[in-house]
Amino acid sequence: MSNKSVKALIAAGADEAVALTAPGRPDMTYADLRAHCRSLRRQLAARDIGPGDRVAIVLPNGPEMASAFLGVAAGLSAAPLNPAYKQSEYAFYLEDLKPKLVIAEAGGDNPVLAAASALGIPVAEAVVAEGAAAGAFRLWDEEADASDPAEDDEALVLHTSGTTSRPKVVPLTQRNLFASARNIAETLQLTSADHCLNIMPLFHIHGLIAVVLASMKAGASVCCTPGFNALKFLDLAAEQKPSWYSGVPTMHQTILLRAKRNPDALAKIDFRFVRSSSASLPPAVFKELAETFDCPVIEAYGMTEATHQMASNPLPPGAQKPGFVGLPAGPEIKIRKLDGADAAQGEEGEVCIKGENVTPGYEANPKANEESFVDGWFRTGDQGLLDPDGYLKITGRIKEIINRGGEKVSPLEVDDFYMDHPAVQQVVTFALPHKMLGEEVAAAVVLREGAQASEKELKDYAAEKLAPFKIPKKFVFVDEIPKGATGKLQRIGLHEKLGLGEAE
């Protein structure tokens, strides 16, 4: 067996230790999980599906989604897809990925069935027996001998979010997955005693790697919830007694709102730490999380092409710095200036990475590979700097930086500033097209319950602290800011989603 593989990660836990749990279901032990993954690979081998082949997985969030990912990735390549896609979206992704099989929910009517049928791709239903342990299912009865993949064989394939262009196909190898799971388990000092409450979607790199695979590396357990439900989170955390959870900032903000109203449930929760990734965590939310749960808040920095984690704040006695995504936590990190030279300490530039967790390259996209890989370093497209202690601060996505007539505005800086305003619950700064300047600064704001603030008040609040060109010209007050499928706030194209024309 390859030492750097998903199969090796699953081998870590003790036979009798719990691997997967789910509300209202018997637990699945590591012995059962290994048997399930072995059987799933043998079932696929019986239909001539093995290393190098892709299997699309379209299942609701929960234990079967986790065990399907683990079983498929342990022998071939898993292609998890969002179960909320429409038929046309499935048609695009299936045509792009060309899987040998689609695994879908038994008895369901998901539009993936019609999309796969039109493309001639077979579909297998994941049949869960009554009273089965969390994650146990079968596709069919036939089994055959299955061979192990090599370290450089593909184990997972995902698309980039594609906010500005056609989504790119990101293949990740057995070695990539192993390296990233190991890096995260080490950063978080996970042990077999840890239990994670998963609220992240399992068609996204964050939940798959940071929660499921990193836990497997430590022989720890994961509670596989049906997804993020703010109303049930605190009760589930009180009942499941997790030692940690990982989420995106919008999830943390919603959890904090509920926690204030539920002191009894909060009193029963004892997290070792709370982790945040996939978008910048405003310092005000960092502080509130740390105070509410009385534990360290570990902000990390990840992306699909890096098999998730690149940097992370350390656990105590290391310092957690609000507004910083931490120290290099796996790959090497350097800051590159526009002219290609290395930036000096404290100087802004593009964040570049190199390491075992970095994708070998986009599939069938030589132009993107040529632009993204320079001298063995991967260009993340993020702008940032390293402080004197080596902590990384992300100052924005290069494509999201607002160019106001030649004056560059980091929307993150404006977000963080307004998150300190007592009436502001959420804010997203974005570019608004402008005839003369090219782009003007605008902000979408969600006010705290019962709070009031006018556009003039918010502009006056910034008058002494922000340069005039950074102060949003227009504020849009909304009940909710549009989010992507993983809970990330959508900055690019937000003016269109909000139905705004050009700035005046």
Beta-strand fraction estimate: 15-25%
Percent helix among the residues?
25-40%
Structural class: alpha/beta
Reported CATH architecture of the largest domain: 3-Layer(aba) Sandwich
Adjacency order of strands in the biggest sheet: 11-12-13-14-15
Quaternary state of the chains: single chain
How would you characterize the overall build of this protein?
The chain folds into two domains: 6-293, ANL, N-terminal domain (Rossmann fold), CATH 3.40.50.12780; 401-497, GMP Synthetase, Chain A, domain 3 (2-Layer Sandwich). The strands form seven sheets. Strands 11-12-13-14-15 form a five-stranded mixed sheet. Strands 16, 17, 18, 19 and 20 form a five-stranded antiparallel sheet that branches. Helix 4 crosses helix 5 and helix 9 crosses helix 11 (283-293). Helix content is 29%, strand content 25%. The protein is of the alpha/beta class and 504 residues long. Helix 5 (112-119) links the parallel strand 5 and strand 6. The chain starts with 5 loop residues before the first helix and ends in a 7-residue tail after the last helix.
